[in-house]
Amino acid sequence: MSENQFPDQPQQNQDPAQGWGQQPPAGPPPGAPYASPGWQSAPPVDAGQMHQWQGGPLGKVRSNGTCVLLFIVTCGIYGIVYYYMTHDEMKRHSNQGLGGVIALILAIFVGIVNPFLLSNEVGNLRASRGQEPKVSGMTGLWYFPGMFILVGPFIWFFKTNDALNEYWISQGAQPA
Question: Distance (Å, rounded) from C-alpha 120 to C-alpha 134?
């Protein structure tokens, strides 16, 4: 009599430990969290781990000399390409920041803000991994008004690019 002869009635429990002829329990015991049969609840997650990003693809380590040479040879066009590529790599890696397209639009229409934004994002990227930021939005002051002493933009670029290169190498990228 293992099969239920009356399909419209619930099957009775045949386990001797629970007693013959008694109905099986309808659900979990009172006070226990509900779990569907065959499903397990997810393990508890610490609140600090909920928003922890493991990191996406690494960016490219760029030589300071090569970048300056490309900037000069292309009459400044490489600067726009540099902003796009670095912002895009940081966004893909950390899932934070402007991203390449927005940085490109800003570089074309209000280019003076990009040195401040790039230095700020590089500093935030480093800080998010527990590294010393080394650069911040204030580093952009080497670019403007630093351009009036002519070497200011170079100092800004070397500081920011070096900080970004150090970060990529610390994450496993190959040096240039």
Answer: 10
Residue 152 lies in a domain: yes
> Which pLDDT belongs to residue 176?
80
Mean of pLDDT values over 154-166: 98
Residue 66 burial (10 A CB sphere; 0-12, 13-18, 19+): exposed
Instruction: With CA atoms as reference, report the closest residue to 114 among 124, 123, 105, 127.
Output: 105
Number of domains in the chain: 1
Position 29 in a domain: no
User: What range defines the domain where residue 128 resides?
Assistant: 64-170
pLDDT digits (tens, 9 = 90+) for 87-109: 999 999 999 999 999 999 999 99
| Close Cβ partners of 123 (under 8 Å, ≥ 6 residues apart) | 133, 134, 135, 136, 137, 139, 163
Higher pLDDT: 89 or 42? It is 89
What's the DSSP call for residue 164?
Answer: H
